[in-house]
């Protein structure tokens, strides 16, 4: 009886109407300040919470800063992030929002293909600060040239300062178009990472579990009504 009462109180608390503020980075075509409603990922977040009576506000910040402010509970959460064990120490993950593939882009005049992880060692790979690239890590002996502004990776690729750039397929194509080098680039179709992406909340946040539970309930509502696919793949 006591457990049932506690569960009822927790559920009521999770569903109580309130406003939360999330960090969002620039990651077109999925999220970004200039995109309609902040992009499809932000639409999912907004509509999932709205279905539970919550309101979402956004702060558009560089990825590393948004992650740090979320960790320190200055913001209520951030998205989209893939899972890794190190980040899991500080953050709670929602149910998956979308699954995406990260590949290696290369300059057409300097092709880069790989079959085994070892093939990428000895290459300088463009990466973004605070991003995680599966098995490709500095600790494992890979050479990553990290930047704070993702577009700069493609300028470095054009100049020959990196051998390849690691990025999600649609994001990479969007960034290449923004820099004006899309026609000079290709990518190896073999993904270095194919994983789900999530909304995350700091474990130190006093309402961490309530935020995650509310979002998960809203996400399930979007799935059951077909709205999730409509937003992400329209």
Short characterization:
This protein is of the alpha/beta class and 234 residues long.
Q: Topology of this protein?
A:
Blueprint: H1 2-15, E1 19-24, H2 40-50, E2 55-60, H3 63-71, E3 77-82, H4 85-88, E4 91-93, E5 98-107, E6 124-128, E7 143-147, H5 151-159, E8 164-168, H6 169-179, E9 185-202, H7 208-225, H8 227-233
Parallel strand pairs: 1-2, 1-3, 6-7, 6-8
Antiparallel strand pairs: 3-9, 4-9, 5-8, 5-9
Description:
- This protein has 234 residues and is α/β, with parallel strands linked by helices.
- The chain has eight helices and nine strands.
- The chain has helices at residues 2-15, 40-50, 63-71, 85-88, 151-159, 169-179, 208-225, 227-233, and strands at 19-24, 55-60, 77-82, 91-93, 98-107, 124-128, 143-147, 164-168, 185-202.
- Strands 1, 2, 3, 4, 5, 6, 7, 8 and 9 form a nine-stranded mixed sheet that branches.
- α1 (2-15) packs across α7 and α2 (40-50) crosses α7.
- The longest helix is centred in the last third of the chain and has 18 residues, at 208-225.
- The chain is globular and about 55 Å long.
- The termini are far apart.
- Residues 1-14 have low confidence and may be disordered.
Largest sheet: 9 strands, mixed
Counting DSSP E segments of at least 2 residues, the number of strands comes to 9
Question: What is Rg?
Answer: 19 Å
Distance between the termini: 46 Å
Q: What structural class do you assign from the helix and strand content?
A: alpha/beta
Overall mean pLDDT score?
Answer: 93
Q: Which bin fits the share of residues in helices?
A: 25-40%
| Strand-residue proportion | 25-35%
User: What is the count of DSSP helices, taking H or I runs of 4+ residues?
Assistant: 8
Order of helices and strands: HEHEHEHEEEEHEHEHH
- Overall shape: globular
Poorly predicted sequence stretches spanning 5 or more consecutive residues: 1-14
């Amino acid at each position: 009886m006591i457990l049932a009462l506690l569960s009822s109180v927790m559920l009521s608390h999770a569903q109580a109407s309130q406003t939360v503020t999330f960090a969002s980075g620039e990651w077109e075509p999925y999220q970004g300040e200039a995109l309609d409603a902040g992009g499809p990922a932000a639409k999912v977040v907004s509509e999932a919470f709205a279905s539970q009576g919550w309101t979402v506000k956004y702060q558009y910040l560089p990825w590393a800063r948004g992650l740090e402010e979320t960790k320190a509970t200055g913001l209520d959460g951030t998205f989209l992030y893939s899972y890794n064990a190190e980040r899991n120490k500080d953050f709670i993950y929602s149910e998956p929002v979308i699954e995406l593939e990260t590949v290696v882009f290369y300059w057409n005049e300097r092709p880069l293909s790989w079959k085994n992880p070892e093939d990428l060692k000895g290459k300088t790979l463009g990466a973004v600060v605070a991003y995680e690239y599966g098995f490709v890590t500095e600790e494992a002996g890979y050479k990553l040239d990290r930047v704070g502004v993702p577009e700069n990776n493609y300028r470095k690729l054009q100049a020959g300062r990196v051998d390849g750039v690691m990025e999600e397929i649609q994001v990479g194509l969007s960034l290449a178009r923004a820099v004006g080098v899309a026609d000079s680039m290709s990518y190896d179709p073999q993904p270095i990472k194919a994983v789900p992406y999530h909304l995350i909340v700091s474990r130190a946040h006093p309402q961490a579990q309530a935020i995650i539970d509310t979002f998960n309930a809203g996400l399930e509502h979007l799935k059951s009504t077909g709205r999730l696919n409509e937003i992400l793949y329209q």
